[in-house]
Design brief:
Length: 598
């Protein structure tokens, strides 16, 4: 334990050391796209609102993103996908149901990247299947006031202030935000959501583009959870979450190599109340503390050779009335050498994950890429990843769920063939096929039709054959079109009645979005998801989903700093059950908002 703690603090100290060595070098141009304002998802202002707009991410919401949202990438279970900041993953050891939770302002971040397979292994600490990697934008002087209302007396708002002081050698930026909202009748009459969040940032950049960020955020949220997590919907429930996150990160880039260093501390409190039919209230209280860090980079050598390397460490502690008192530590080291020979690029390396008690894992990584003269790349890659079960999967016991202390570490291997390209006028596209196997797959299942609870089990090996394709077009005047398709076919050797997550996947899912600039002040956007889900005996709705959202914005003529927004979610009034047997029908919902920025 002491070794892990020392390593984490050493990585944090390296942030200061790296930044101190960034003078008198070649300049670096940093490119990042700011996030566009949106009230999709009722505009709660949470990072989950942003995740729900990414075509490659399947945000499985219970109500609206301001409530509780699971992430899925390439058909993963909610436990297999998560968020990273500049390559530093932020897993949640209590339960991955909170992977979409960040107590930060989404305006701090540029356009995120979705990393999977070999790309995830080379550029991020990584989750089992996929990572949404977010980067902090350079601070500019700005003031922003935003807010909105929706049906059922719901409202939200936020104020954000950023200030930049530029000098010849360095630029200092500071910022702060505060916001929140109350969103009523998310899916059933008493599943309301109340959010309060605030935070501050400090940023130092030099004339070479090197950037150091200190982010501090806190979020407090109370939400009704009747029917959530597989609980009998006849019982009302309430969940109170308090989330404090401190992040320190720095990056530098030079012709001879790139270096990133980061560390974070997170304190997460989760209090759950269930008003069941038995005497008394079912209650559990969880306290999770995490200390983590990362140091990675790329060393460049002559003749087109380089080495991608990474070291990570984390220490997790949980104190829980339902899960017990536990702690665990993990370290990981990776090295992936690469060489470019003409139009061909070769990368071959490995990652080693070192656990405190479980068996250590050696994870090979390899990729061969061919670049055409027209800018198209073709890549054949192989990668492996691992995941420790959450403490909920290991130890939880409730009226609806039963953990399993004997669960083994889950391991995945992915072989993929990807083709990427771009063209004129802001067009980029990707298409590919992948084959993934997960051993000791962890899922919440019901063995028989009369089972009273969901039980956590290693259900064996799950094999997934997937096809994905997507394209984006961005116009300089603000118009855009994006389309993403994912097709999956799974096979497994389990014998069970129903799966809640891992085997309840979308066989086909198509997402399309378009935004049109109708003159200099008006934009109109539409987003549509069409899904065909795997059959599940507990899903009471149909297997097909048609989820559409429409949004319009108007920039005032006399006051161009004022932007008016209006949206309608669930345009087609679809009653598809996101989770089998759980009522998540929120109905058609209209929203309106305003942003004032100066």
């Amino acid at each position: 334990m002491r070794k892990i703690t020392v390593m984490v603090f050493a990585i944090g100290l390296a942030s200061v050391v790296v930044m101190g060595k960034t003078l008198e070098r070649e300049p670096l141009v940093v490119e990042a796209q700011p996030l566009s304002p949106s009230v999709y998802g009722s505009g709660s202002g949470s990072v989950a609102d942003l995740l729900g707009q990414i075509p490659e991410v399947d945000l499985q919401t219970q109500g609206v993103p301001g409530g509780q949202s699971d992430m899925s990438i390439r058909g993963s279970s909610f436990s297999g996908a998560g968020v990273a900041l500049h390559g530093l993953s932020l897993p949640h050891a209590q339960t991955e149901h909170f992977h979409a939770e960040l107590p930060f302002a989404l305006e701090w971040f540029g356009s995120p990247r979705v990393l999977t397979g070999f790309e995830q292994s080379a550029a991020s600490s990584g989750f089992l299947v996929g990572t949404v990697d977010m980067g902090v934008l350079p601070i500019t002087t700005r003031r922003l006031l935003s807010g909105g209302i929706s049906e059922y007396d719901s409202y939200w708002g936020q104020v954000l202030v950023q200030q930049q002081w530029a000098a010849t050698e360095r630029t200092l930026g500071v910022g702060a935000f505060a916001g929140g909202g109350d969103i009523k009748q998310v899916d059933v009459s008493d599943n309301d959501v109340r959010i309060r969040r605030a935070g501050a940032q400090l940023q130092l950049r030099n004339r070479h583009g090197d950037q150091t960020d200190l982010l501090v955020g806190r979020q407090e949220k109370t939400l009704g959870v009747r029917g959530y997590y597989g609980v009998n919907p006849a019982w009302a429930g309430e969940e109170d979450i308090e989330d404090t996150l401190i992040y320190l990160g720095t990056s530098r880039s030079r012709p001879g190599g790139d270096v990133r260093a980061s560390a974070y501390y997170r304190e997460f409190s989760d209090d759950y109340l269930l008003f069941w039919s038995l005497p008394g209230i079912f209650e559990n209280n969880h306290r999770l503390d995490v200390l983590g860090g990362m140091l990675d980079g790329r060393w460049r050598f002559a003749d087109g050779r380089w080495l991608d390397w990474r070291a990570t460490a984390s220490e997790e502690r949980i104190r829980s009335s339902a899960l017990g008192y536990h702690s665990r530590q993990q370290m990981a080291f990776s090295g992936i050498p690469g060489i470019r020979v003409g139009a061909w690029q070769y990368q071959l390396g490995a990652r080693v994950d070192i656990f405190e008690e479980e068996q250590n894992e050696f994870l090979p990584q390899a990729a061969i890429t061919y670049f055409t003269a027209s800018g198209i790349s073709v890549q054949l890659a192989y990668s492996e990843s691992v995941r420790q079960p959450s403490y909920t999967e290991l130890n939880y016991e409730s009226p609806a769920s039963l953990g399993n202390a004997g669960l083994d570490t889950q391991k995945a291997s992915t072989t993929e063939l990807l083709v990427r390209g771009g063209g004129p006028a802001g067009i980029d596209w990707k298409a590919g096929v992948f084959y993934r196997t997960t051993d000791d797959t962890v899922d919440w299942i019901r063995r028989t039709s009369d089972a009273a609870r969901w039980e956590a089990e290693n259900i064996g090996t799950v094999k997934t054959l997937g096809v994905e394709a997507g394209a984006r077009w961005l116009h300089s005047r603000g118009s855009s079109v994006a389309i993403q398709y994912l097709g999956l076919d799974q096979s497994d050797d389990s014998d069970l009645h129903a799966s809640r997550y891992a085997l309840d996947y979308a066989k086909h899912v198509l997402r399309a979005s378009a935004q049109a600039a109708l003159g200099p002040r008006i934009t109109l956007g539409y987003r549509q998801t069409v899904r065909r889900q795997q059959a599940n005996p507990l899903r009471e709705s149909g297997r097909s989903q048609y989820d559409g959202s429409i949004q319009a914005t108007y920039l005032l003529r006399r006051y161009p700093e004022v932007l008016l927004l209006a949206a309608v979610d669930n345009v087609w009034d679809d009653d598809y059950q996101v989770f089998p047997g759980q009522e998540t029908y929120a109905g058609r919902r209209a929203s309106a908002g305003m942003r004032i920025e100066w």
